[in-house]
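Sequence in, structure out. First:
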Amino acid sequence: MVDRAVDPLTVDTAPAQRSDHALMLAVRDGELDALGELFERHQGPLFGFLCKLTGDRPTAEDIAQTVFQRMLKYRHTYRDEGSFTAWMYHLARRCAADHFRRSQSAPHAADPADLNEHIDEAPHAAHHAATRDDHALLHAALARLDHGDREVLLLSRFQELSFAEISGILECSVGAAKVRAHRALRTLRDIYLKLQNRPAS
């Protein structure tokens, strides 16, 4: 009986997962089913971004749906050298702006009903309760930022986009995007400390 060595070149491997960019190029070229995979990958993060931006879950759901509809409608505008994520958030900003222009209301994030509840709770509460309160305070502080500051922070800190991508989304230079993010982060910190009833150092 002859032992046969396994040729590594003949071993079946799972097909490589296509990048977001490759999928969007496929959508642009008529492979519309590829948009479904992009939806599965990005619907959650996009919805989270829009929730924090608008402060309203139903509104965020509506806008997220519109974003994917526009991806399909304007697929021919996607560029070969483009970043899918930056393009998606650029569309999201436009969709959000259009939504609030139609409803003639400004985007807002809902503050907790009584912020003092988060400051006055028992000091010896369990660690998970303290963590929950910190998150609530951070959410409340984020809600108090103006729309532009909240937007740049969400893109840089929560969605973790590069400043090169953010500059394209906000239509400004990379340097300006960094300055805006730094100022917004400092403002967020000051608001957060005030909500904790602590003076900023």
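Second:
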Amino acid sequence: MDPVIIIGNGIAGISCARQLRKRSDVPICIVSEESPYFFARTALMYVYMGHMPKRDLYPYEKSFWKKNRLDRIQERVVEIRPEEKTIVFQSGKTQTYSRLVLALGSKARSLPLPGSDLQGVRGLYHWQDLEALEAHTPKLKQASIIGGGLIGVELAEMLHSRGIEVDFWVRESSFWNTVLPPEESAIINRHIESHGIRLHLNAQVQALQGDDEGAVSHVLTADGKEVPAQWVGATIGVEPNIEFLKQSSLETDRGILVNPYLETNWPDVYAIGDCAQQKNPPSHRRPIEAVWYTGRMMGETLALTLAGKKEAYRPGPWFNSAKFFDIEYQIYGQLSAQADPKNESQIFWQHPSAAKLIRWSFHPETRLFLGVNSLGIRLRHEYFHNHLLAGSTIDQVISGMQAAYFDPEFYPNYHPSILKTLNSY
């Protein structure tokens, strides 16, 4: 019997494989060029910073794969032949499948700049990116990061932890201000700079300059600056890793187009995780969501279908979390960086002397609760998730806010001030 083949061993592919094995005895084969074993991608930064050894990146012992009969192939797939139900490896070998799961993940977007092909210009996504950075680190005195967002600030923290001077080039007028409202963005600006990072806002990088050996040496700006950099982090976002499929008959747009059951237009071929693009995404969700938990949910959902219980992907209310150096960030539901007053009202509380902030969002007429975000304050996911599912009003959310705080020590210090702000609305 031909196996179910899963191309990609990130969180989406491995979640699918694990859940399918719990429900079925079908042969399963996981294919990945990047690494022979699944690892915690979000923890790569902590290995570089010395907070954990490389061996702790692997959640499962090596015996896990044999025990659960999950075969692995570490090769690059260069072609898929759906009529023959066959994949073709770069080595020329082929493998047939019964069903095929494309969990191809993302790749860092290339910088649209002259010199972006120089040595030492790289994103931070794959295992090989970490290895390349580690190899270059002994030579690094100054590095530049081009592009804001979560990966950019992670890379800034990583380089700073090794004593490397960092220039952070952000084209927006404030950090991540397409996502964060002005007050939140301003807090993060100050916090990044407080750690010794040179944050350049409204930055216009013109080109990258190299040395005689083809390695990056300087960042050139539109206003004539030449800033030394022996490493340039390309952090202008990620995109689905589907280049080898673009000329095939598989339906693609920015990602691989799928229906609610994660099916592609090829029979018995599915797509999950960062590479999957919903043809008709649920309300208030993006067609492509390159975050850890959506990959896991897609993998678990598809496993049910592959085991014989056809299940649609239902992601529920949006949530996400991140860390900007020492400040934690959370968002549940929908909250705009620039609210349209016709459709969204916001309540804003900020501690007068600390980087702690909560912002609530609701519809101005119906008072339907839309979402909440926080900086420096941990909130309980379950509390807001349940209110969003129930269609609660902002008044119902406010009335029980004391149950929403994750940290018990938070109650006596800040809750009276927060309640005063909430009650004014």
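Remark: The longest helix spans residues 292-306.
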